[in-house]
Amino acid sequence: xxxxxxxxxxxxxxxxxxxxxxxxxxxxxxxxxxxxxxxxxxxxxxxxxxxxxxxxxxxxxxxxxxxxxxxxxxxxxxxxxxxxxxxxxxxxxxxxxxxxxxxxxxxxxxxxxxxxxxxxxxxxxxxxxxxxxxxxxxxxxxxxxxxxxxxxxxxxxxxxxxxxxxxxxxxxxxxxxxxxxxxxxxxxxxxxxxxxxxxxxxxxxxxxxxxxxxxxxxxxxxxxxxxxxxxxxx
Length: 234
Prior knowledge:
Number of strands: 6
Number of helices: 9
Distance between the termini: 61 Å
């Protein structure tokens, strides 16, 4: 039986120009809404990323402490693996990646696989990073731990994005990510709109509060100009 390809329906139009219940959206519509939302939030995402403790530069994604592990346990990406990745990401380490979700993990014959979804905040760009690594004994075992310390030594890495930028592969990106939008347990679309991008709402609220403080402080000056017949052009 041939699987019917989903398309945008009138429900998507209701969300973008009217109203509808989230349960009526199909995965393609959730994906389209996420892209629309990221584009709309693009102007504020770098500010959001700066205030998000989980955000990091590309080199910190390649080399970082093992989550839930001892402080000495690291994920290490050797130069020969890093050299296979887009050079623009390595050179521009000030670009900030915001982690969204770990989409998949697996293990086969001692080799581990992790697929993680990020937003590259500087460009509001969806990015998937596939990492292959082995858990190997930590080289410094002078102090005995139970269980023994390990490092996650990366043996391969692959990056794809929703748009072709900076030499990042985008061929097949939509086919790769759509199964996760289709997974009802993951609720990826709702997670991004309702939770992940809620950080943008928080940042907007802070910006509004800051503007309100400035306007309140400047109001006497604005009133003086108004009484003198000078237009404030606000």
